[in-house]
Amino acid sequence: MTTRLGLGLPQMRQFSIGEDVPAVARAAEDIGYDSLWVFERALFPEPATQGLYGIDGLPWPDQYRSVAEPLVTLTLAAAATERAELGTSVLVAPLHLPFQLARALASLDAASGGRVLAGLGTGWSLDEYAAAGVRPFEERGAVLDEIIDVCRAVWGPDPVAHDGPLTKIAPAVVGPKPARPIPILLAAGNRRSWRRLVDGADGWLPVAMGGARVADQWRQLRELAEERGRTEPIRTVLRVNAEFRRAGYEGADRRPFQGGVDQIVQDLVEYAEVGLEEILLDLQGTARDAAELTDVAAEVFEKARAAGV
Predict the structure, then answer these.
(1) End-to-end alpha carbon distance in the chain
(2) Across 233-244, average pLDDT
(3) Is the pTM of this model over 0.90?
(4) Most CB atoms closer than 10 Å: which of 51, 217, 262, 300?
(5) Residue 52 resides in a domain
(6) At what angle do helices 191-200 and 211-227 cross, to 10 degrees?
(7) Angular region, 139: left φ>0, alpha ψ -120 to 50, beta rest
């Protein structure tokens, strides 16, 4: 079966958001990409009080100094396209108030004709949690649980009602409704978060971390789903953060998805063999501008399909 391919939209500071997002979105749809994706990075602490991913001493990449708001970016893409799905990988859900987030996603899905994929995670930045002011970082799991519950309620039939620690909705009519039930996908990397996914979500958003490791996690997740009696399929979208190098890069110390187009495609072939449904390729970090991003995305797509991905 052919692996679905998605493309990360241009959100970083080298791009003109108002011009480049619609242009890249239209081009990606014309090339054949099945989906368009955004990620969330709310701020860039300076000086850094916490390392990248919460790892002491690991610097934040310079590209994170300016990242466009994800749902605004997806709205621009929705208006410029007709077919491609519109996903978040990921939206740091606990940075958002549950009711407002549920309504924004529903409106976007209604406007786009039912193309939204709500990819949610809990994030890792203490500074982002402090700035958002919704709830403390230590409560992120509980907040995500309530956000999922509120979304299901708001997207469902009226009257909508919810009584939780963060959100209390007296019976009310809440619209617009999404065009169809919006799939909720979670960035889950351990057994506790896998249980949340198996019991209450529609899909999984792993990150490329080595083909064998992703395959092992996928096996464990399916086994857990069987243990807990889940019969619905789990949708899978693998995020790949690629570092395109114009001169290419070879050698034993080359990281996966680092190098020229041929090397990126070679790595895509390896990950496609894991058997996941879709691969999201984010090329924007090392692209100089929208033209280069589009050109590289087109070449990768063509060669990946020729290689059987």
Answers:
(1) 9
(2) 96
(3) yes
(4) 300
(5) no
(6) 50
(7) alpha
Asked whether the predicted pLDDT for residue 254 surpasses 80, the reply is no
What Å distances lie between residue 46 and 137, 258, 279, CA to CA?
20, 28, 33
Is there a domain that residue 245 lies in? Answer: yes
What CATH number does the domain containing 167 carry? 3.20.20.30
Burial of 173 (0-12, 13-18, 19+ CB in 10 A): exposed
**Cα separation, 106 vs 104, whole angstroms:** 5
Sheet strands (E) in the chain: 4-8, 35-38, 85-88, 91-92, 116-121, 160-163, 168-172, 184-186, 203-204, 235-241, 243-244, 258-259, 278-282
Domain containing 8: what range? 4-43+66-123+140-307
Q: Are strands 91-92 and 116-121 parallel, antiparallel or unpaired?
A: parallel
Cα(118)–Cα(91) distance, integer angstroms: 8
Indicate the residue type of 178.
P
What is 33-48 written as a DSSP string? -SEEEE-------SS-
Round to whole Å and give the CA distance between 216 and 86. 28
> Does the pLDDT value for residue 146 go beyond 90?
yes
Which structure tokens are listed for 211? 């083909």
Q: Are the CB atoms for 92 and 40 separated by under 8 Å?
A: yes
What pLDDT score does 248 carry? 65
pLDDT tens, 84-141? 999 999 999 999 999 999 999 999 999 999 999 999 999 999 999 999 999 999 999 9
- 157 found inside a domain: yes
Domain count, the chain: 1
